[in-house]
Design a protein that fits this description.
By secondary structure, this protein is an alpha/beta fold. The chain has two domains: 2-46, no CATH class; 51-322, TIM Barrel. 26% of the residues lie in helices and 23% in strands. The chain has nine helices and 19 strands. Strands 8-9-11-12-13-14-15-16 form an eight-stranded mixed β-sheet. The two termini are 39 Å apart.
Length: 340
């Protein structure tokens, strides 16, 4: 086991983890809520080390990131466990994994930070993304890998639920380029229908901090779940918050829910609901609102907010046309804030 970063020692051999906003107080011989940080003798350890559950070479659009090196490939890595318990989790087989050190080791590929960077370079990837489960929980590994990745001129991406503390962001901030964050709802009531949560507004604070303090590229995903977080007034409040706090050009991905796991009783999101929420985002002044998980929908493409011409045409994760390679619209010169 490797000693964890970002914790403090308390009385009676307890420790407080300061990595995510649960701030778990962990007695000796116990784990925190994520199940992968273990108190042994008053010292907090991570059980994860270099243990990888999932690895793939993915289009960056799959994260989804639409305004960050469009058309590039990212070496994508995931591990075990999560600090959320989302009722409809699509990756529950790795996020709900209840581990011990031996079980993790026998179920994993051991890919060290050095190996990960070499893999990314050998596969022609432009960067590395930590995804599939919450990357915060193997913070030590992602930090070590991100430092090496930046030295090798690779970009770095967190696909995250936004639970990290600002203290954690201050440590990894110099080495993290993109923060693709889920904002699952915009009220305590709706969030609690989806997952066990601390003060959900901490996610908003973390997202603002990633953008304003560390100048990370931010894109937001909201998976719209019927009867849970599809209230139109709530979605309007979220769009308004985005415009006022992280900028009108921040991409918002409105994605279609499909029934799964603890939410298998619900229907898929009606496409009409997604289209109405997209209209609300545009009404509130957002320049780029996408509809996801609806293959072939015209609003998976990028349109210039000024001249309204289609800039990027997509087919799933594939880019068919790109008229914004300079970061500006080729047709009218509008600044798009697309990172190239």
């Amino acid at each position: 086991m490797e000693e964890a970063l970002l914790y403090e020692k308390l009385q009676e051999n307890k420790v407080r983890c300061n990595l995510c906003n649960f701030h778990c107080v962990i007695p000796e011989s116990k784990t925190g809520f994520c199940k992968v940080r273990f108190n042994k003798g008053g010292i907090l350890y991570t059980l994860l080390n270099s243990y990888v559950s999932s690895v793939a070479l993915d289009p960056i659009e799959k994260k989804p990131l639409f305004h960050f090196y469009p058309g590039s490939m990212a070496l994508s890595l995931g591990t075990w466990g999560c600090n959320f318990r989302c009722r409809g989790c699509q990756n529950y087989n790795i996020s709900r994994f209840i581990p011990n050190e031996d079980k993790i080791a026998s179920s994993s590929q051991n890919i060290t930070p050095e190996m990960a960077v070499k893999m990314a370079l050998s596969y022609g990837a432009r960067g590395i993304a930590w995804t599939y489960n919450e990357p915060t929980i193997w913070f030590e590994y992602t930090l070590a890998t991100a430092k090496l990745a930046k030295a090798a001129h690779l970009y770095t991406v967190y696909v995250t639920n936004g639970s990290m503390t600002t203290e954690g962001l201050d440590v990894i901030g110099p080495y993290l380029d993109a923060f693709r964050v889920d904002i699952k709802a915009f009220s305590e009531e709706s969030y609690k229908k989806i997952t066990t949560i601390f003060d959900w507004k901490k996610i908003l604070e973390t997202t603002i901090y990633a953008k304003t303090r560390w100048n990370m590229h931010v894109e937001i995903v909201t998976n719209v779940i019927p009867t849970i977080n599809d209230n139109l007034n709530e979605m309007r409040e979220l769009a308004n918050w985005m415009r006022n706090n992280i900028g009108k050009n921040t991409p918002w991905h409105i994605t279609r829910f499909y029934p799964y796991l603890g939410l298998a009783n619900l229907p898929p999101t009606p496409v009409e609901t997604l289209e109405r929420i997209r209209d609300i985002g545009v009404e509130e002044g957002l320049s780029f609102v996408y509809i996801g998980n609806v293959l072939g929908h015209p609003y998976e493409d990028t349109y210039c907010p000024k001249c309204k011409r289609r800039i990027i045409k997509r087919n799933g994760f594939e880019i068919i046309e790109n008229h914004g390679l300079s970061g500006k619209c080729d047709f009218c010169g509008e600044e798009l804030e697309i990172v190239e």
